[in-house]
């Protein structure tokens, strides 16, 4: 109650519009707009995983993103990946959930996908919790609007990954490797 009074007080002080003036529809449009910033072309720059074989040559998460399109708040990603030496297209859809920044993806088992970037004109960071055959692994993706990203962005991505308790050897900078 105290909190409620406090926030009402703050709302009055700040002269905020009451919440009910915005319909559900307005809010969902707003959310959609936010994700639309993620659309268009991307490049895979750094991959990291708790299980390195998932992101090594021919691993299921060694994928090269081409672009993202956003529809009804769901993210459609178009990738290339290598199977038996051949580059094949891979189309994945991460479906929105009730939580902002959290998506569900069916690929190599199931995945909880979290989007974690604040600069969609520069880079996007996705953290996947992959559930496959009773095993849980993390896969972290750093995508860039350009094929190369600054050392500063890459370093921060690496530090975040290592802070989660994973080894530096499990981070692969693939900006220099053949992207199919
Ligand atoms: C690591 O990934 C490989 C597939 O590339 C899988 O066969 C193996 O079971 C996984 N290991 C663990 C500990 O998750
Ligand atoms: C995404 O990339 C693929 C492959 O390059 C292309 O066929 C498709 O038209 C692109 N989609 C958009 C929306 O740019």
Automatic annotation (TrEMBL):
Cell location: Secreted
InterPro entries for this protein: Calycin, Lipocalin, Lipocln_cytosolic_FA-bd_dom, Maj_urinary
Signal peptide: 1-15
Domain spans labelled Lipocalin/cytosolic fatty-acid binding: 41-176
GO cellular component, one term: extracellular space
Keyword set, alphabetical order: Disulfide bond, Milk protein, Secreted, Signal
Keyword Signal tagged: yes
Chief location category: secreted
Gene Ontology MF: a single term: small molecule binding
Pfam families, per the entry: Lipocalin (PF00061)
PANTHER family xrefs: LIPOCALIN (PTHR11430), MAJOR URINARY PROTEIN 1-RELATED (PTHR11430:SF76)
Family designation: Belongs to the calycin superfamily. Lipocalin family.
Protein name: Lipocalin/cytosolic fatty-acid binding domain-containing protein
Encoding gene, per UniProt annotation: LOC114042409
């Amino acid at each position: 109650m105290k909190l409620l009074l406090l926030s009402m007080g703050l709302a009055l002080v700040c002269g905020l519009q009451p919440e009910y003036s915005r319909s559900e529809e307005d809010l969902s449009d707003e959310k959609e707009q936010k994700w639309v910033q993620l659309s268009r072309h991307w490049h895979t720059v750094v991959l990291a995983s708790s299980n390195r074989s998932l992101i090594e040559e021919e691993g299921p998460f060694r994928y090269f993103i081409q672009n993202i399109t956003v529809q009804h708040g769901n993210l459609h990603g178009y990738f290339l990946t290598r199977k038996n030496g051949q580059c094949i297209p891979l189309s994945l859809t991460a479906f929105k959930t009730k939580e902002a920044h959290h998506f569900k993806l069916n690929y190599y088992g199931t995945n909880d996908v979290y989007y974690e970037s604040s600069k969609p004109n520069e880079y996007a960071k996705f953290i996947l919790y992959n559930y496959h055959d009773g095993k849980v692994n993390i896969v972290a993706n750093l995508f860039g609007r350009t094929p190369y990203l600054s050392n500063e962005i890459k370093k921060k991505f690496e530090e975040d990954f290592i802070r989660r308790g994973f080894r530096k050897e499990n981070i692969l900078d693939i900006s220099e490797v053949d992207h199919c």
